[in-house]
């Protein structure tokens, strides 16, 4: 069972004290971070001219040196069926649970045929429902960015309930800032998700 909001808060307090701030991530080094400090005030960055040519290829372009095709590196498989696999990060992160649903075949999101897209719709709905019904989960955000790696992968990000500032797209930033979830809690939740997903289709691998 995921931590209660009070347990999550206690985890933060244990790391940085009652009114302490978590360490600042290096957002000033991120090209995509949209704001910068100007004369002590946070301001939107100046929008530069676009690239002269096309964007550089993403990781695993055309299936060459593709992390997902090569077996996911350190990301362990949670569940699979014939065409889909569910993986978790190599270790717990700050939010209760983050999982990736990926096709086994090397293709991009928009390349799914109708049959595969229909199956994706069913699995993503089951998975979102299963994760949202875990105790103390406020919402599960389903995100396909695909800007880093070409191989189809969709993020399922469970945010905690009752933290009004850990919401929406910026909830993702808290995943790297919050101290990691205790490993035994995290593994038990992954097992529960895999077990329940396997009642619909495929098989649990954890
Ligand atoms: Zn691939």
UniProtKB/TrEMBL annotation:
Query: What InterPro entries does UniProt report for this protein, alphabetically?
Result: HIT-like_sf
**Protein name, UniProt field:** Uncharacterized protein
